[in-house]
Amino acid sequence: MSDVLQNIWGGRLNIYSVTAAGLLGLVAVLVFSVFGAQASPGDSEIVMLSNTVEPGLPTGLSQIEESAVPTIFDELGSVTQDTLKEEAAPRSSSAISDKQSEWVTVRMRVTAYCPCAKCCGKHANGITANGHKINWGDRFVASDKMFGFGTEMKIPGYNGGKSIKVKDRGRLIKGNRLDVFYNTHYTAKKWGTRYLDVKVRVN
Fold this sequence. Notes:
Strand content: 15-25%
Number of strands: 6
Helix content: 40-55%
CATH superfamily of the domain at 102-201: RlpA-like domain
CATH class of the domain at 102-201: Mainly Beta
CATH topology of the domain at 102-201: Barwin-like endoglucanases
GO biological process, one term: peptidoglycan turnover
GO cellular component, one term: outer membrane
Strand order of the largest sheet: 1-5-2-4-3-6
CATH architecture of the domain at 102-201: Beta Barrel
Keywords: Membrane, Signal, Transmembrane, Transmembrane helix
Distance between the termini: 141 Å
Domain 3D: 141-199
Transmembrane segments: 15-35
């Protein structure tokens, strides 16, 4: 019985001895792999970042791109300078005068006439009340004396909306009533009677 127990215990000790030896060997291999790799310089060359990147530039920006940057800002600066000069330039006298002029809107009854005897009666001599000699294609208006000769007006639908001047009077043209001039009786009659918002220049 004692011989059997001795054989069993002896076998266990042998197994434990082999296992311990294997573990120690594995640990030695791992230690060598880690510390040995760090200690060896290796065959590859270590590349320093400072040798591959231009100083003062972000990664990936070439020297050509760097030289273009100040040029772009110089161009932007010149555009800004020109823009400021244009904005600071004095406005022309015509622009100032147009801004200072005032127009008032007056609701008026607008009819039309021509230089014929039916429209002008005994005054059908081709000359208006302010002495203007009528020419073909003339565009002007007859008004009450409340509007002086030369007063500018803009009448919707007449003369393309462009301003015209008061150059004539009329026996029936009183108060807020106007007579626009046409060269033919047909065109004047075709105009008819209209109630319009007329713009009158007051200065």
